[in-house]
Amino acid sequence: MTGAALESRAGKSRHTLLGLHDVRVHYPMGSDWLGRPKAVAHALNGIDLQVRAGETLGVVGESGCGKSTLAQLLMGLIKPTSGTLDWIYNNPGERSSNVQIVFQDPQSSLDPRLPVWKVITEPLFVQRSAPRRDMRDIAARVASQVGIRTEYMDRFPHQFSGGQRQRIAIARALSSDPDIIVLDEPTSALDISVQAQILNLLAELQRSRNLTYILISHNVSVVRHMADRVAVMYLGQIVELGSASEVLERPRHPYTQLLLEAVPRLGVAVDDAQVSAPTELPGNRNLPTGCFFRDRCPKATAGCEIPQALLPAKGVETGERVRCHLQSG
Ligand code: ADP
Ligand code: MG
Q1: Nearest to 255 by CA among 285, 275, 283, 227
Q2: What is the 327 CA–ligand 2 centroid distance (Å)?
Q3: pTM of the full structure
C-alpha cells in the first residue's frame, strides 16, 4: 500500500456511525470492610472518537492501555463510568447497534461442541434475529463468502486448520450483519503464510459489504496495510488520531514516535514485527497529573505539568489530532 493510496482511503467522506464523548471506564478493585473499593483501575480516561461508516480504524498501544476495554464498551458488554456513546440508531424504536468481534485465537474463541453452522449463526440465536429454520442456509451462505466449503457445515471447529478457524470466526462475526466488527489482533496467532490471506479476505469483505472495522493490533505493519485512520492509545487516552499515512509516516506525539521507532522500518505489507514498550507502562491506579506521558517523555518541559487535550496538530489541515502542547496548534 502506497502513501497516496492510504491518503485517498482516509479521505473518503463517510458519515459518523458512532461518537464517543469523554468516555471513562474505571474498575473498582477489591473492597474494604465498608464495601468501598481499595483501589480503582483507570482503564479509559476520556475517550473522544467518531467511528465512520465503512472505515478501518486502527487502534494501537501497549498492553494495558485500554484497547480491550474499548472493545467491550463498543460491544455493550460494559457501560461507561461516565461519558456517552452515541449511535446513529439512538432514537427509540430503531434497531439497537450490533457490534461483533473476531478474537486473536480462534482455537479458544469457537465453541468446540458446536457444529460449524451453529458456530457461525450463534449471534443470530442470541439476538433471535432470524428464524431457526433459516440458520443452516444463512451459515452456508456466509461460509462460502469467507472461503469455507458449504459441505463442511456439520464438522466441528477442531477439524479445521488455524486459518480456516479464523475464517469461521469471521463468518460468525458477519452472519448478523453488524454495524462494526472489532478485530482484536486477528492474525497474531496465525502462521505468517496464513496471515496475509486472512488480511486480504478481511479487506475484500470490507469492499464488497462496506463493513466498518476497528482493528486492534500490536503489529504496525498490519495496521499500515489495513487502516484508513489510526488512534494511538496511552493510559486510557487517545494521544494521537489521524489518517494512517500521517500518524504512521509523520508521527507527532512523542509516544507515537517512540512506539514506531521500536519497530524496524517496514517495506513489506505483513511481517511479525511487534511494538515493544520502550520502558514499562506506569500503573493506572493513581493517574499522573498533567500529561500522562511526561515521566517517560524525552521532550518533556515545564508546560507538560498541565493536563493535555487532544487538539488539531500544528501545520496540517487534514484533521490530525495530538494530545501534546508541543505538537498541537
Ligand atoms: P489492553 O487490551 O490494551 O491490554 P485492557 O483494556 O485489557 O488493556 O486493560 C486496561 C486496564 O484496565 C489494565 O490496567 C487492566 O488491568 C484494567 N482492567 C481491564 N479489565 C479489568 C477488570 N475487569 N477489572 C479490573 N481491571 C481491569
Ligand atoms: Mg487486550
Answers
A1: 275
A2: 28
A3: 0.90
